[in-house]
Write a structure and sequence with these properties.
With 87 residues, the protein is mainly beta. Strand 3 and strand 4 form a beta hairpin. It has one helix spanning 45-50; strands at residues 2-4, 7-8, 25-29, 37-39, 52-56, 65-71, 80-86. Residues 1-30, 54-87 are annotated as: Disordered.
């Protein structure tokens, strides 16, 4: 799994930003980052099909914990679904 830094909308003190033209994103569905986007521009196909462990202030392991998101087999180019929190 990739340790991904770029989830849009997770930094409370960052200026509001949205998707940028020419960039590739996946929507996160379920879990603590539901409805947010992760930028996957420049990721390899393997990284994109593997998913990512994302740092979140709202994991079961407290602030700074990680949560796992990944594609579904039925929609590999679609949104990533929550797979659970990880220590």
């Amino acid at each position: 799994m990739t340790q991904a830094p770029g989830v849009l909308g997770t930094e409370h003190d960052a200026p509001a930003t949205g998707p940028q033209p020419g960039h590739t994103y996946r929507e996160l569905v379920g879990g603590p980052l539901d409805g947010q986007l992760i930028e996957v521009t420049g990721w390899t196909d393997e990284e994109i099909t593997t998913g990512a462990h994302l740092i979140t202030p709202h994991s079961a392991y407290g602030p700074g914990g990680r949560t796992s998101y990944g594609p579904t087999f039925s929609r590999p180019d679609g949104p990533w679904v929550w797979e659970g929190d990880v220590p």
